[in-house]
Amino acid sequence: MSVSAAYATIMLEALRGELDVAGGPPYWRIYGGGVPAPGGTPPGDLISQCNLTYPVGTVAGAVLTFAGPFLPAPILAAVNPTWARLHDGLGGYVMDVRARLDTVADDPANPAQVILAAPSMVVGHQIQIIAASVSLG
Question: How many degrees, rounded to 5, is the angle at CA 20 between CA 83 and CA 40?
């Protein structure tokens, strides 16, 4: 899909606005393993759920950059993150994106949109988003 920068910005502003008003706080669910079809059942392990704060972020240059503070969340599965699913404050599916630990090299052809930090991937330890953004166009 290719979208002009002007329309991408409008679409991302609408998304940001919906995330800011839809029920409770929106959140990312972080997974390991393969990515399902959009909105499909995750085939991999749920690693953690990271809630977002209000306002969720800002849009500039056809990129929605999620704002912190990003609070640490418990690790539920000891696997490396590979993707993340964004949910609105009502639990509705929004989108799936690539995710990785900050210690893992990024794929320049398909960069991660959610970057996380964790001292170790041990169940019960903490994981935290350090950067998150989505772009269109």
Answer: 35
